[in-house]
Amino acid sequence: MITQAIFVLTSPKAGEQFLRVLPDLRAIGLAEAMILHLVSAKRGPAEPMADLANWVRHFEAAIPKVELALKRGDPVKWIYELARVRQVDIVVISGAPNGVEWDLAQVSSPLRSLGIPILYLPKQQIEGPLGDRVLIAVKAADTLDRAVSGLREWFGFDELRAIRVADSVADDDRRECSGVQLEIVSEEGDVAATLLHQVERCGATLLTILADEEGEIAGARHGVPVVKPLIETSLRPILIWPSAVKASV
After folding, report:
1. What residues does 144 pair with on adjacent strands?
2. pLDDT > 80? residue 168
3. Which neighbouring-strand residues pair with 122?
4. CA 78-53-114 angle, 5° bins
5. By the 8 A CB rule, do 71 and 48 touch?
6. Which of 40 and 62 is assigned the larger pLDDT?
7. Can you tell me the distance from the alpha carbon of 84 to that of 120, in angstroms, rounded to the nearest whole number?
8. Is 128 in contact with 205 (CB distance < 8 Å)?
9. CA distance 144 to 134
10. pLDDT grade for 69, boundaries at 50, 70 and 90
11. Which domains does the chain have, with CATH numbers?
């Protein structure tokens, strides 16, 4: 299912992170990549980052078809437009420091309304294949079936675990859905901190955050942000799974 992707190349560090996940994405079918490189929005000539051509060649060595798009202005707008027009399957963003503010915290974010997954890579070096140990955060047990089905169809993930953050937990409050163990865990301060603790506890290589049908992120309640603190502090990649995945192309 993952055949086309947009990689938002904002710095050499981002390029290094992308090269680490390319083998994982190639293994599940990635054949076309668009490299979106953002240049200064200020008036006058804008220079792309140094060695941009070399980074493009790295991609061309790993992927059959590679395109480069140089754009000026709002990065979220360009990601949204290119993803919609090209009908890509995933957007890959790096958390490496680059001065770009990603609008992922709000439910109304254009990026969250794309209907495709967004893979957010942490600032730190990525360890291990993405699909080794995938942890899914769900808001309700009845959303797990859809999440499991989508993750297996799009990514081929087999080793899946799921958690739901709750105010309180009974000793035997765990169950199985779609062959995946769902564990109910007590909230530790806030939902984001709880999820990060659980990621470290089980050694997850990828945290998947599932939005429900109303567009709310798993565990979000009383207006407390979940996505922003996660992407700012997580040491593991985060996959933001949309509330409504687009149809296959």
Report:
1. none
2. no
3. none
4. 20
5. no
6. 62
7. 19
8. yes
9. 13
10. very high
11. 4-101 (3.40.50.620), 134-241 (3.40.50.620)
